[in-house]
Protein: NOL1/NOP2/sun domain protein
Organism: Drechmeria coniospora
Amino acid sequence: MSLYHEAADILTSSPSQGGSLKSRIFKNSKFRSPPNQLYALVLETSKWSPVLTEVIQGADLLKLERKLTPALSLLLVHDLLLAKGGIALPKAHGLRVCIEKYKGRLSSELTRARLRRKSPSLRALKLEMNKAAAGEEANYPRWVRINGLRSSVEEQLETTFAGYSRASRIQDVVTKADRHLYMDPHVPNLVAVTRGFDLTATEAYTSGKIILQDKASCFPAYLLDPGPDDGDVIDACAAPGNKTTHLASILRGHGAASASRPQTIYAFEKDGKRAETLDKMVTLAGSKSMTQIGAGEDFLNADPHSDRFKNVGALLLDPSCSGSGIVGRDSMPELHLPAPNPKASHRHTVTAAGAGAEDSELRVVRDDDGIETVMSSDAVLEKRLVTLSEFQVSLLLHAFEFPAARKITYSTCSVHAVENEQVVMAVLRSEVAMKRGWRVLRRERQVDGMKNWPVRGLLDACGGDKAIADGCIRSYKDDGLGVMGFFVAPFVRDDALAVAAGEGRRREEMPMELNGGGVQGIQDDDDDDDDDDHEDDDEWKGFSD
Ligand SMILES: C[S@@+](CC[C@H](N)C(=O)[O-])C[C@H]1O[C@@H](n2cnc3c(N)ncnc32)[C@H](O)[C@@H]1O
């Protein structure tokens, strides 16, 4: 089957068969065409389908060539008029010959369709199509975290963002067409910039000086705020590494106060492939020497009482979740198909699952680590959420066991209470939480930016406990603050309770390295780690340096 027949099959097949467009193409071995080419063709054609439908209908193509299907005609006309190399078939191939003979007619229709949209050029029309296809993402800024391990805000303002005008409101970054930059008032080293200008091609991006990370995704590490007196840090679910590298940057930022011993970040990632991405990101961000990656390691199998983790004072838990808060996750351009009868065009909704049946929409929920569930009913969604929340609870309960731990942040990019406040309430009721004195950190004790963040946890879902609800932090896609839907809860250990249980130690009873005593620089990128506690690094196979 040719590239075009395979692409036409994808465009017209049911969303219940195989999940999102990406997974239907990349996880399906039945296709003979290169997956990248197939994906690009289907995506670009969908993007252009409103215009191409007018072109095909205006040229009466389906009337003149009755053997052509609507999907096939869209794909071929797309490549004929818009692809650099034209139609990817041999010159004498029947399909190519059949379409090319209408080139003049189709080109004129394209010009008409462009002029109807008042676009001065094909380039301008292309920008318009890209913007329309960006879906909800177009209404959000591009958040950029400046990586303190490699650069500084000052340096980036003078270089990468030198041509940007300063915006005083986040809305200006979204609505203005030219380049604007907004300094975030909550999270240090974070800026929002106008979308549509490719930052991935900049030197700052390719050298790890800037990291594209949604504002809300910066909350967990900032809220955890690991300092020199927090010992080692665990990132329990680390890939691709946005929060791992943020933790490293914060640790280094607190370097002025200095720790008595080098601090290590243990970054667990149970998926081997994703661990490779994590490794690359940690290396690029300049935090490799302070991070040990547990590639393929399940955090739930880590022994809290092992010698290795005896100095772990802080844990960041950002487990797999439904991903319901992610902006643009499911956005795919709406597919317009020319009708055989030119009077009516068909509109197909392309959901996360790909093209749907006519005017129908079948939801596919994709977890933030890629697992897809076709939501044939509310009960299916509910069941998936319960499974996720059980896993999230088990992760938190496991984290509560680490003997020296005094701080934890738990986060999801889900908006469902069952994965958020309900998880918090369930773990607070647990035996280990009560025994070891874990509670939610009150809002007034949180770092300034998080204390001042206006959107808090759901009171009802916290059983009416205002202190707990206020201690939790939320964001919603549509709250006008320019961020994705997110949830973070900070936990701390209540010293008094822990001491009463004979388990904890008061700060003044803690060893020097955990109570902030002693002054020594944090391990530098190039430093060799010759600390005694690290001598057995090589014996412990799970983590690689
Ligand atoms: C939400 S993503 C983490 C995103 C990451 N914190 C960041 O900001 O870049 C969840 C990750 O946790 C991993 N994961 C899930 N369960 C795990 C477990 N029990 N132990 C270690 N990693 C786990 C998944 O493979 C996935 O890569």
In short: The chain has a mean pLDDT of 84. The pocket of S-adenosylmethionine is lined by residues 217, 237-243, 268-271, 274, 298-300, 318-320, 368-369 (CB under 6 Å).
